[in-house]
Amino acid sequence: MTYCVGMVLEKGLVLMSDTRTNSGVDNISTFRKMHHWRVPGERIITLMTAGNLATTQAVVSQLEERTKLPENRANSVLESATMFNVATEVGRLLHEIIEERQKANGDRGKGRFTASIILAGQITGMEPRLFLIYPEGNFIEASFDTPFFQIGETKYGRPILIRGYDPQMSFEDAVKLLMVSFDSTLKANLSVGLPLDMMVIEKDGFAPAHSRRIEGDDPYFQEISSSWSDALRHAFYSLPDYTFQT
Q: What stretches of 170-218 show up as alpha helix (H) in DSSP?
């Protein structure tokens, strides 16, 4: 399992993903699930992936055409005219790879190779855009009504995002909101784990405005976690008391 969130603000995009991959409680590994490419001053494109690791790595590899000799490679996401075209290409690749592997494995392959992807980025002359791409290859785009997407283990961190999101919030507050959402998910599900990868993409910046990996001993994340726990306990005990007396 995994947990990834992409969020649209008036100022740009904020993205965060965990790195835990497991196939059982005794086989846990760390793999990067956030990948980005850019052309300085022209475009930046980021993918976050959830699902079968071999499937998502195959998508990334084929986007970069790693099956060709280095001198013949051409990253397709750097050649597409619009973010919609990028989403279409990523969706096509994802669907083809899943279908191919499920057919190769027969009945044993059903449901084993699925994956989903959050695609975020901006191409010069256009607005920053955020897409959620499904295993079937189709996708939806973030809007005023749906300003953020989650993939993976979504249920524990979603209430935090719904209550705290504001399209006009600062990047700093958005990062803090995502950290609380991830902390809630980490506390509730062992299949999501540190370190976390985080990226902020400012509108018309075409480069990460801020990017970092958050390790388990990160002092700010630890402070967020403990402070949020204290704040929840304080809020709980400040609620009106219930009584058994009528």
A: 171-188
